[in-house]
Write a structure and sequence with these properties.
Distance between the termini: 25 Å
Shape: globular
Helix content: 40-55%
Number of helices: 10
Radius of gyration: 22 Å
Strand content: 15-25%
Structural class: alpha/beta
Order of helices and strands: EEEHEEEEEHHHHEHHEEHHEHEEE
Oligomer: single chain
Length: 358
């Protein structure tokens, strides 16, 4: 799988920019705030239909413009395709020229795995960061997952609204059974999807981490959920009902799921060093890369946003030499010299991209 070309119109700081990519390594370098991450963001947008940087899609449109367009041409083992995303008053997504009705129809056409400096927050931040990591990975491989997740979120919102009405307007508490039933129905499906992929990560991450740390560290990942069985989820909702009414929101459910990573038996986000956080994230992302390959029979596109700055020159080369047959998009502040590797460099300056001559 690889992207041939990206065309940006009024996207972020790009007025009209065509970017031709090669199958192997593509390096975009330049000073900060010149538009390097915007390239990664446009590709990620074409992959899952959302930005990894903002929930406000108006921020993706160039200042003083009303609309933006991202066009991406890609190739897979069995087909070629084109994705177009139009941003304005409404977001419109086109696959091979046909407007799609549901975001799930976009998912899985371009698979990506992304590394960013903010990845450290997957482990250091709250459980919502870890759920987001799982949700993005699963949705690319199981498009129906995002549909179930949306249904769960809507039901949760309705239940929370009714909890407030019980407290403020003395509504009938027994009617919560309606929302509980639906919450359990969707929640169990979400748990099953997440558990499936946690097990896949568990199979991959142990050996990957041992290799990265030269057998000095052993990594383990554990998943925690209120919905590990249907009956358990029902019991949790019933036992917390009085508390939920007082608080005005649902305190138990898959929206509070979490996974924890341990290194040598210790919880990394509590006891881990900065270096252990970085290697744990690297192991997690490389596990994701291999899981995608196992699922679809080809590697996803690897997006490295300012990731090379986290590694010394020896580790950079070692890392890139060990990810064969993958299209890699790299952004960095300094021009990289990658000996013995097939790559193209592009200089990014004030929203203009110029290919460097080797």
């Amino acid at each position: 799988m690889w992207i041939n070309e990206v065309n940006l119109t009024n996207f972020r700081n790009y007025s009209n920019q065509k970017i031709k990519l090669q199958k192997n390594i593509n390096v975009f370098f330049g000073e900060n705030a010149q538009g390097k991450t915007n390239i990664i963001e446009s590709i990620f947008l074409g992959s899952i239909g959302k930005s990894f940087r903002t929930k406000k899609e108006k921020e993706l449109i160039k200042f003083n413009e009303e609309n933006a367009v991202v066009d991406i041409s890609f190739k897979k083992i069995d087909r070629e395709g084109k994705i177009q995303i139009k941003l304005g008053e409404k977001k419109q997504v086109f696959l091979n020229g046909i407007k799609i009705k549901k975001l799930s129809e976009l998912l899985g056409n371009i698979n990506t795995v992304i590394f960013t400096p903010e990845d450290i927050n997957i482990l250091k931040g709250g459980p919502e960061n870890r759920r987001k990591f799982l949700d993005i990975m699963i949705s690319q491989l199981r498009p129906n997952y995002i549909h179930v997740l949306t249904l769960y979120s809507k039901t949760l919102e309705q239940r929370n609204n009714y909890l407030k009405q019980i407290k403020l307007e003395n509504k009938d508490e027994n009617l919560l059974d309606i929302w509980d039933e639906k919450l359990v129905e969707y929640g169990i499906k979400i748990f099953e999807y997440r558990m499936e992929f946690i097990k896949k990560i568990q199979k991959k991450i142990l050996n990957i981490h041992k290799e990265i740390t030269e057998n000095r560290e052993e990594i383990e990942i554990k998943y925690f959920s209120d919905a590990n069985t249907r009956q358990n989820f029902i019991n949790e909702l019933k036992s917390r009902r009085k508390l939920d009414i007082i608080k005005g929101f649902t305190t138990k459910g898959v929206h509070r799921d979490n996974f924890v990573i341990y290194i040598n038996g210790k919880e990394v986000n509590v006891f881990g060093s900065q270096g252990q956080h970085r290697t744990a994230i690297l192991s997690l992302r490389l596990s994701e890369l291999k899981i995608v390959y196992d699922e679809i029979g080809e590697y996803p596109i690897l997006l490295l946003d300012d990731f090379m700055s986290e590694l010394d020159s020896k580790r950079r080369i070692n890392f890139l030499e060990n990810i064969k047959d993958i299209q890699v998009i790299i952004t960095c502040t300094d021009k990289l010299t990658l000996e013995k590797l097939d790559y193209i460099s592009y200089n990014v300056c004030e929203g203009k991209i110029v290919q460097e001559k080797l």
